Amino acid sequence: MNATDTITPSEAAFFGMLAKDWWDPKGSSAMLHRLNPVRLGYVRRQIDAVWDCDPRARRPLEGRRVLDLGCGAGLLSEPLARLGGHVTGIDAAPENIGVARAHAEGQGLGIDYRAGGIESLEGETFDLIVSMEVIEHVADPAGFVAGIARALAPGGLVILSTPNRTPLSRLALITVGEGLGMVPKGTHDWNKFVTPDELAALLDEVRLETIDRTGLGFDPMRGFALSAEMALDYFLTARHARAIEAPRNQVDA
């Protein structure tokens, strides 16, 4: 399989152009900075519940291999590393990877950043795979999910987020979000948005069992928050069907 089978070159080029501003909380990625605490909170809630981690533990991912798939410039990769994970971040845009590496080095974090797609991870497995707002940008969603299944270690977790394909998401993310410059124009293609049922079906095809669906809502006063309502955006957690807890991936010191 070609290493770029799931990558849409125009999408990679678009996000690569935004790389230099990725870490600016007031720049073109400002919305991602506002999203990040909610994303991290959801990830922490899932690993604590499924792996029975102590919610007070500062490094619950200690000894586990973590993949941030579509990592951008590392906004989520860095806090996952601080939670103890041995993090690999992969992104289709080489420009993003360059910015991510430089920022992580400045923070003293040893994150393994690579440019490419899920296909480039042939033979590697990870205990936790996160992919936030990525599947709606790939060329082949089914192939993308199949690659995730191959890369997931026994007992591992997959956590995805993506916009739902609803009238509300079109209004909020494209008409308002892009129209008012809250996110860069051209970021979204509503026709490529994936519903929760469609995503769960793709996961089921590769024997990944959905164990949680949680909405992402937005309130003008409170900002982003987890929600029972999934019309705008949502998180989904999955694991191998009939999964049991397995030993952690061995990571070289």
Automatic annotation (TrEMBL):
Keywords linked to the UniProt accession: Methyltransferase, S-adenosyl-L-methionine, Transferase, Ubiquinone biosynthesis
Keyword Transferase set for record: yes
Listed pathway(s): Cofactor biosynthesis; ubiquinone biosynthesis
Broad class of enzyme this protein falls into: transferase
Domain of life per record: Bacteria
CDD domains: AdoMet_MTases (cd02440)
EC number assigned by the record: 2.1.1.222, 2.1.1.64
Binding site for S-adenosyl-L-methionine: R39, G70, D91, M132
Gene Ontology process terms (BP): methylation
Pfam families hit by this protein: Methyltransf_11
InterPro entries: Methyltransf_11, SAM-dependent_MTases_sf, UbiG_MeTrfase
Catalytic activity annotation: a 3-(all-trans-polyprenyl)benzene-1,2-diol + S-adenosyl-L-methionine = a 2-methoxy-6-(all-trans-polyprenyl)phenol + S-adenosyl-L-homocysteine + H(+); a 3-demethylubiquinol + S-adenosyl-L-methionine = a ubiquinol + S-adenosyl-L-homocysteine + H(+)
GO function terms (MF aspect): 2-polyprenyl-6-hydroxyphenol methylase activity; 3-demethylubiquinol 3-O-methyltransferase activity
NCBIfam families, per database record: UbiG (TIGR01983)
Function according to Swiss-Prot or TrEMBL: O-methyltransferase that catalyzes the 2 O-methylation steps in the ubiquinone biosynthetic pathway.
Name recorded for this polypeptide: Ubiquinone biosynthesis O-methyltransferase
Species assigned in the record: Sphingomonas natans
